[in-house]
Design a protein that fits this description.
Elements (H helix, E strand, L loop, with lengths): L7 H8 L1 H22 L7 H4 L2 H19 L8 H17 L6 H29 L2 H33 L12 H24 L5 H15 L11 H23 L3 H4 L3 H23 L6 H10 L3 H31 L9 H35 L1 H18 L12 H12 L2 H7 L7 H8 L1 H21 L5 H17 L9 H13 L1
Helix pairs in contact: 1-8, 2-6, 2-7, 2-8, 2-14, 2-15, 4-6, 4-19, 4-20, 5-6, 5-8, 6-19, 7-8, 7-15, 7-18, 10-12, 12-20, 14-15, 14-20, 14-21, 15-16, 15-17, 16-17, 16-18, 16-21
Length: 516
């Protein structure tokens, strides 16, 4: 059997939950640095406080992906995880702006991001499960539309509440403004209801139906989906030894040099390398003892045998997400310092600048939503790779241009390029990737793919504070210029990627065969 083509409104319904997920995610991105600064965080300490978010994704997404691959009950395969994540994220959104101290706020970020990840990861696999190849770009683009739409409203909420409804935008030192609190409350309600809508209006194929579709796809295309190589302890032990030694060496270098004193956040990088190596070694030991059915061993085995396309996309993802993570962390301090000329979070000028950052985020997310309708059209003509490369290049140049702008209103112009890049990041890599994935591993590999989103975020959180203070002498705007350069490198790296079932190429091959 083949996957049937879904109507526009069926794709709409299955993607609608992303409106709420991104509502919560955008509130987090646009306001958490502001909350941290209000509760006493220094600019150079903000990246390490954000470290909770990527580490949570690193752990949660592959686990949830693996579990959702194995789940099938009367509620479905992916949908139960949508609702579990939505409930906990809603609770976190209500509590976050009421955090009484900086460290509690950092802990709530951990909980909130983990809960968002529980819902978000199965949504990616949901598109791969339900849509045929020729509709996948549209499916991920529809997700991108809802991501952009939710983020537009959520990012601008504090500004809207302040300027349209007169809600207070300032508060005493150490107190979160009422405009931010109310925004988070609204976000919690929107998130829960939108995810519930998708759960109630969408259906899923059973595991048996997906297996039959996979068999039909292989028969028609003649291309065998990835088959998991036999589990061998030697590969685990070899790779585990390499990573463990590298982790010990990196940690020792930081410890016995001035690097540790200058930037203690670097210990996180060395520590994660060491932990990863130990997990691989443990997987090798468990495999030797015939315990390879263990979930951890299964995930690690899939990681070591990932499809070639995924490894190539990992490079693109690294440069892309390093840039955007830097933007989420540093746009508020960069704009308030570079354009508004203040770093004092208690002043009216600072909070005006922080609200304007929310508007800028709304604008780039708005253009991201609009690009959802344009990107599939471009991709059908020039291919997904070329489309993604152009979008990343536009974003890189837009980031760099921020350095030359001093007028707040003019900051809106670069957000067009940023939005186009963001829309492509949210759709094109996933549309390319799912063509190389077997259906029974869709969730697991989507979770593993998140590693290549999380790793650059962890690196950014570990080194950007040091780079900003030591090399840029506190000029935060230069960190955003560095982010722009990273996006340009991402654009170049797109051309190493193999897109196995690019619709534009398949159409060309079919036309060539018909002429023969």
């Amino acid at each position: 059997m083949k996957k049937r083509h879904l109507s526009f409104w069926e794709i709409w319904n299955m993607s609608f939950g992303f409106l709420g997920i991104q509502f919560g995610f955008a509130l987090q991105n646009a306001n958490v640095s502001r909350i941290f600064e209000t509760l006493g965080a220094r600019v150079e300490d903000i990246p390490i406080l954000w470290i909770a978010a990527p580490i949570t994704g690193l752990i949660i997404q592959p686990i949830i992906g693996h579990l959702s691959d194995k789940t099938w009950n009367r509620f479905g395969r992916r949908r139960p995880y949508f609702m579990i994540g939505a409930v906990f994220t809603t609770l976190a959104l209500f509590f976050m702006p009421n955090s009484p101290s900086l460290w509690i706020a950092a802990g709530m970020l951990w909980i909130m991001d983990g809960s968002i990840n529980i819902s978000m990861e199965p949504f990616r696999a949901f598109v791969g499960d339900n849509l045929p190849s020729e509709q996948r770009t549209m499916g991920f683009a529809m997700q991108s539309f809802f991501i952009g739409t939710g983020a537009v409203i959520a990012s601008a909420l504090p500004y809207i509440l302040t300027n349209w409804f007169g809600v207070s935008n300032t508060a005493a030192e150490g107190v979160i403004p009422q405009s931010v609190k109310l925004s988070f409350y609204i976000g919690g309600v929107v998130l829960f209801l939108s995810v519930l809508y998708t759960v109630l209006t969408s259906k899923e194929y059973s595991p048996e139906e997906l297996a039959a579709q996979e068999e039909e796809k292989e028969k028609m295309s003649g291309v065998k989906m990835v088959v998991k190589a036999p589990v061998t302890s030697s590969r685990f032990l070899k790779n585990g030894t390499i990573w463990t030694i590298a982790g010990v060496a990196a940690t020792s270098l930081i410890l016995f040099s001035s690097l540790g004193e200058q930037n203690g956040q670097l210990y996180i990088v060395g520590g994660l390398m060491l932990v990863f190596g130990l997990i691989l070694l443990l997987s090798g030991v468990m495999t030797n003892r015939s315990l390879h059915q263990n979930g951890m061993v299964s995930i690690m085995n899939d990681l070591l045998h990932m499809p070639k396309t995924m490894g190539q996309l990992a490079v693109v993802q690294f440069f892309s997400w390093l840039a955007f993570y830097a933007m989420w962390i540093y746009t508020t301090p960069a704009i308030t310092q570079h354009v508004y000329g203040t770093t004092d979070s208690t002043t009216i000028l600072y909070n005006q600048g922080a609200n304007w950052v929310g508007v800028l985020f709304a604008v780039y997310n708005g253009f991201s939503a609009l690009s959802a309708f344009l990107l599939p059209v471009i991709a059908r003509q020039i291919g997904r790779k070329a489309t993604h490369a152009i979008a990343l290049a536009m974003g890189g140049l837009a980031f760099i241009s921020l350095f030359f702008i001093k007028e707040p209103t003019l900051l809106l112009l670069p957000m067009i390029g940023v939005g186009f890049a963001w829309g492509s990041i949210l759709s094109m890599p996933y549309a390319i990737l799912t063509g190389a994935l077997p259906s029974d591993k869709m969730g697991t590999y989507m979770g593993i793919f998140n590693f290549f989103i999380v790793i650059p975020q962890i690196l950014a959180a570990s080194i950007l504070g040091y780079i900003t203070s030591q090399f840029f002498h506190g000029q935060v705007i230069l960190t955003l210029v560095l982010a722009g350069c990273s996006l340009l490198l991402g654009a170049l790296s797109v051309f190493i990627v193999q897109d196995k079932d690019d619709v534009s190429k398949l159409r060309t091959r079919k036309a060539d065969r018909s002429r023969m």
